[in-house]
Amino acid sequence: MSGDRPTAGVDDRLPAPPRPVGLRTRYCGELRPADIGQQVSLCGWVDHRREHGDKLAFVDLRDHTGLVQCVVEGAHALRSEFVLRVTGTVRERPEGTANDQLATGQVELAGCQVEVLAAADPPPFVLDGYTDADEALRLRYRYLDLRTGRMQRNLRLRARVVSALRRSMEGQGFTELETPLLWTPTPEGAREFAIPSRLNHGSFYVLPQSPQIAKQLLMVGGFDRYFQIARCLRDEDPRADRQYEFTQLDLEASFVTEADVRAFVTEAVSAGVEAGRGERPAEFVEMTWAEALDTYGVDKPDLRFGMRLVECTPLFAATSFNAFKAPAIKAIRVPGGAGFTRSRLDGLVERAKSLGARGLVWMRVEPAEGAGGPGAPLGLDSPVAKFLSDDEKVALVAATEAEPGDLLLLVADEHRRACEVLGQLRVDIGRPPVGEGPLRFCWVVDFPLFDGLDEDGRPQAAHHPFTMPHPDDLDRFDTDPLSVRAQSYDLVCNGWELGSGSIRIHRSDVQAQVLSALGIAPEEAEARFGFLLGAFRFGAPPHGGFAVGVDRLVAILAGEDSIRDVIAFPKTQSGADPMTGAPKPLGPRQLRELGLRDLAGPKPPAR
Ligand code: ASP
After folding, report:
1. Which residue puts its alpha carbon closest to atom 8 of ligand 1?
2. 439 three-class SS
3. 187-238 per-position pLDDT tens digit
4. pLDDT tens for residues 130-166?
5. Domain boundary among 133, 161, 181
6. What is the CA(252)–ligand 1 centre distance, in A?
7. Peptide bond preceding 583: is omega within 30 degrees of 0, i.e. cis?
8. Which among 148, 363, 434, 441 would be 20 to 30 A from 38, CA to CA?
9. Nearest alpha carbon to residue 385 among 374, 370, 39
10. Counting atoms of ligand 1 from 1, which one is nearest the CA of 504?
11. What is the pTM assigned to this prediction?
12. Are residues 267 and 360 both part of a single domain?
């Protein structure tokens, strides 16, 4: 995306611009040979000015539709990013000067009258080669960055995708409803932003992590199918795929199964992809959480590349190699990886250890002659090769389908850790940028209800505590909670979690059972979300839903690695807004009104 000129923002799939009104009669990017001879008025920014002899200059005038060359007399005062109204006559460019790279490249505007609508300071970074500009600078002058082709294209793409999502949901019979931003704490796991109440000092609203509870109440309220393009707020460290505030396509429906919810979402996301890419995505693969862990070592598998995890535990059942006497042994085959340098291999070993593995075994696969001459059973070059029997080596090469030139990486550990460590190495080594290549969507289903135990040995909710356990697993609830599956599912695309959802608990007794397993006492549950439990006592329909991360979906469609590049005014990785300076201290009067005291106190005077 680098070196993108602002004018590249014109997108072929954009609808024709509306009829111009006001100061202009046409748009810059739409002039063609058919317009030759017409007098037009255009408005826009000076993209470039090139002197042409003493008197004349070429001024490329740019608006949101593209740019056109204007031949202007006495243009010396016109600088980049000045805002102009130019009236002139469309003419064919002189022989040999047409520009095929430009949609308007066959024509130019001549005999121009120029009106300067606004002068401009020199922009603090070049608007067309801007990827060299530091991101903090781009965000400080975001309104300038927004003029670039990249941001114009990304945000217009976003608008198209959101519009398609909305139409798809409406077409599927969903009603768009808004839920409050000033909300109350809910137990969804993320840290919440608190808003002090001016009228009730010491009391706070909370900005919603998601409309989760509100949408469940809408189901109790009989709305049957709800959706919202909802802003969600979580006070969690921002990073490439996470912002404090982000947008979800949030939905909920009554009397539905998991498969129904997935079908609604598949349809909406396909419509969004079609709006962005011009065609619907291929099949949405479905796999269980256990399969995803086993095969990809992660619950958000990137299906665009291979290097799947290979089960090797049985191959070493009788091994005499101590390091392989472990509950599980998993391997990945890195095609062509035998060429990795020793320091890269050492780096992988360190990485595996930092991820919690006891160690990492690597083996370079060589032609048979390379390791012991012709006729030798195998060529495995590895510090541990001598500890393995020939049978084990043969079995390993067969299981991994290794070929000379490949690298094998093995982890022997607890099953989950072996999978997760290799899954991370697979991604480190092989993963293309998120927007590259085909879109590979994947539903991951049958998540566990609980995700490990806390220090007190209590299970932790994997999704949120409103998720319905799998009906077949209810009897293991007390005896083996970690094996209880949830009726929850994630949508994954190219290794990014695009969203998650579940069938919810709609019965107060089951909800109470889950809350108690999570260690939330009845009084605490009552205090925190008694309003939900109370609602369930008045006839709650079985219901389930989902939320799709709109920023992530658009970033993937735009080929951007960071969701900041598809959000008009994002925060930096440290949560700041370099443009407005937020967050900022409040003045003493406002603090008083809100009943707050600044514990940080006044800054000590500079010495
Ligand atoms: N509220 C959930 C979330 O924001 C999504 C859902 O379960 O519908 O992740």
Report:
1. 546
2. coil
3. 667 899 999 999 999 999 999 999 999 999 999 999 999 999 999 999 998 8
4. 457 788 899 999 999 999 989 999 999 999 999 999 9
5. 133
6. 10
7. yes
8. 148
9. 370
10. 7
11. 0.91
12. no
